[in-house]
Every structure is written in structure tokens, then in C-alpha cells.
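Researcher: For the annotation table, I need C-alpha cells for SGNH hydrolase-type esterase domain-containing protein. Please keep the output clean. Sequence:
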Amino acid sequence: MPTYTINGGYSFRLPDGTLLQGGQTIELDEATAAQHSEKLSPAGVDNNRVLGAVLQTLDGDLVGPDGTVIMSKMTPRWGQIDAAILGSSDDQHCFANLEGTLVVSNQVGTWTSLEGDHLLQTGAPVSLNKDAPATAFQARRASARVTRVSATVLTMPLPGWPDGTGVMDLHIRSAYAQPSWVRRLVALSNGALRIVATFAVGGEQTTAKLAQVDDAIATPGVRMIIGAGGIGNDLLGGVDPAVTIANITTIARKISKAGLLYCVRLPPATANMTTVQQANGRKIMAALESLRAEVPGLLLVDEFAATINPATGLGKPELFIGDGVHMNRVGKDLVAAQAWATLQPLFASPISRLIASVTDCKRSEPLNQQAMDGFWLATGTTASTLNAKATGTVDAAITNIVVGGSAAVLACSLEARSDGFGYDQVFTFTPGGNNQSFQITMTGPAGFEFWRNLSAGDYDFGCVLSITPDAGLEVTGYQHYIQATVAGQSGRITEETRTEHGVSNEPPLKAAMVCNPCLFPPARLTAAPTAASWVFAINVGVRGTAGNKVVVKIGRPTSRPSPFASA
């Protein structure tokens, strides 16, 4: 069969769902090739294409009739891009959408979290919007800047609101809100991609996202908008695909007109798609692929090809939680890899900016500060000596270690990093029964507690983390956060957890999870902290053969002042 080259800016989907991009070659019979002539050129032919009076070059630049570049789609390549999230539940992070009780009195709202500590400091931008309003009070919307009263209480001005009380969702429109797939994407970029705002609301469809796109575009410093924009919820809700296509087209045109990049996540092949949903999804994907010929800066992340099982036409079940719609951690990591493949050409190569030093001893970079010094637990330390705090055996930095459950064993060792910089702590935990756990709390050695190196301002934190359960074990969750006392109030300032807010019955972690680096959402401190601790906790459930274990490798956290101010 003849060989063709796919024209720049186009893509071609094979019958098994595989998607080929511009510049790749493909063998096709002449009849099939004729049906897709606008996408194909004979092998070896220059595949620049003309869009009306505008020429799109191979590297993505759009060049006008006079030869001037009118928009650069793939160049210049940046060292760092600030982005805003425009999506729904898959684009939420557990601290992007908190639920709490709102009491309004004299146009001032007092909001109390029902979910524990929040990360917000005074001045942070938020919006109030109940995902599924049941009353007129919950149906109201507002955007404001908050005052931090405590780790669970915020106040905010609500002019025009009547006095009342109700449960309201609080959406954090700041750099703190990073869903797990985006968090993984940020890690893959080594921090070159930075999330500065989120407009993710669970359950929202494209019509609602269209109403929010102007706010997303107006985010200070934003260069890119990322997200599915409610496409998946349109599919699940039976929205006419013509409406979806019209909405997403308008959104894309608005973003492009503002001179921003728009990275759209095409809907995945979910594990319980109906034939109608499959057909509607293909229509939307085809429309978006065609839209790239019109809209400069439109980038597509195709989740369909990565998630489909060609034998069934449905999504691969192992990528989804029990509802067959929302992806699990493995699926979200896959989405992040797909997104990075699309976005990587935008960035300078190699990426030069580390969001936090993950090679514990890089003192030559003055902005990178090692958060804590010294070793942790010496090789050979076991559960029987953990609470003894023997000198030279247990680091003075560790103020608390708890191993839950009888017969549980925690063996500790130090492992030299493969890059030659320092050590990682290795915890080998063998639970003695179901849902047993261990937890560590660290404040830092005397004279080098990391809070002493922090003052008011924005900070990036990072470390190394991997969790590898044996077959027969399930990790039912972990917490990993930094807690500090700022302006007399104690609360978490940043955290990285596995559980996603708004996604029910997320399954336990069965496969290995490696985050190197593990990047925390940026933290804004309004004053120098007077105390701080770093906490890592894990719960392990035993399933199957007794004596199986989970191995956790973790590196000391590092901090650096962020060169990019939060929104």
C-alpha cells in the first residue's frame, strides 16, 4: 500500500484507536487516503499547509501573507508556563473544592470547613458555588478574597447576600488547587508548568464552563488554559454533541483571541460507555481535531486512544474507579504522560528550573535550601526500638513514630540516591493485620529546623516519594503534608495526598507509585512561621498472603522561595 505523511496540525486515528500525529507516516489504501486527503501528503513531501491566507509551518508558526509570524503555536519555547484549569471533577484536587457551613450576617460570610484543615491564607481568592444546589441559598454564587480566622474558619465579604445559613462548596482559585493528574504533569515538567488558578467545579458541563472562561483568561500572568471543559459531563448527561461542539468552539476561539494556548483533554473511553456516548464522543473529537486548523494554539490531549480496549470499544477497567467514569491513580498518571507528550515541545530543552531541589545536597544553587540535615533512621532500626529514641539510632528530627497494630514490623534503612546526592529513607512495613499503619512526624534537627529558613512569601516544596506494595497488599491511603504556625494560627500550608475530593470509592493503591520529584502545591506565608512539622502517614490493608510488605522510599523535603508569585 502507498505510504503517506500526516500533515502538520492534523492527526489520524487507526481502527484500533491509536492516534498518529502530524509528521508521522502511515500506510493506507488509496480509497481510504482519498477520504482524508486534507490530512495526508505523499511520503517525503513537505507538509506545510495553507489555512486560507495563512501558512502554518511545520513547527506550528502561523505566518501571514506578508511573511510575518502572526502567532507562534510551538515557539518560542518557554522555560516556565503559568496555566489555569478549566474543568470539572477530574480536574479537582481535595483542597480545590472544600465543603463547609456558611453563615451570612450583614453581608459578611463566615465559612467553617467540614473537612478539616485548609491551606488558605488571608487574601487568597475563592469562589462559593454548590456543586449540586438544593436550596436558593446554595444556588447563589460569589467570588471573594478571604481572611483566615483559623485552620478551619474563613471570613469573606458577601455584598448583596441575604442573611442565612447553609452548606456551601468553597473553590480555591489559586496555585494550591492541583488535581492528581495535573500534579503528576507538573512533576514531569520538573516544575516548569505552574498552576496559578483553577476553575474546576464537579459535575459542570460545557455551558457552565463557557460562562467561566472569561474569568480564567483574566487570571494574571496566565499563558495557558488546561482542561476538558466539561466535555465528559456533556457526554454522560446526554447533551446534544452539536451543543458541546458549539460551546467548546466558542471557548477555544475566546482563548486564542486572547493570545493564550488552550490544551483540551479529549474525553476518555470510559469503562461503561453506551454506544450512543461512544458515537457522540467521536463526533466531538473529530470536531476538535478539525478546529485546530482554525484556532492557533489549540493543543489536544487524546485520552481516548490511551484508554480504549480495542476488543470491547470500552475503556480499560483497570484505569477507572468503581463508577467506571473517574480514573484511578494509574489512569491519571497515564493522562499526565499523554499531556506531557503534547506540551513538552513548548518548553525549553533541557528545562533549567527545578521547583525544589530533589537532590538533597545541591548547595551550589543558592535558592535551593535543604529543609533538614542529617540522617533519619539507621539501617537495622525496627519497631522494637522506634520509641526508644536511642542516640545515633533515631534522628532527633523525628518527634513521633507510631506503628499501629500488633505483630506489625517496621524495618528502616538508608539508601544512597542513584544520582549520588544524599540518601533516601526506606521504610519496609509488614502489617500484622488489616488496615494497620505507620506514621512519622518530623520538625528538623536542632539548629536547622526548616521553618527557621522561611519568612513571609511564596515557597515551593518538594521531595522524593515511592510506595511499592507486594502482591496481596493494598495501600488504602496516605497523607503527606507540612503544617506550620503562621500569624498565631496553626494549619496545613501544603500537602500531597492520594485521595481525590469529589470522587467516591477510589480503589486502594495496588501498583507501585513513584513520584520523583514529589512536588507540593506552592505555599504562601503571610508571616514567618514560628513552628512547622512535616507529616507522612500511610494506611495498609492486608489482602491475601500474610507476611507481605509495602516498601516506602522518601526523601527529605526541600524548600525554595518561589520566583513566581501566586495569584
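Researcher: And a one-line annotation?
Model: The chain is about 15% helix and 35% strand.
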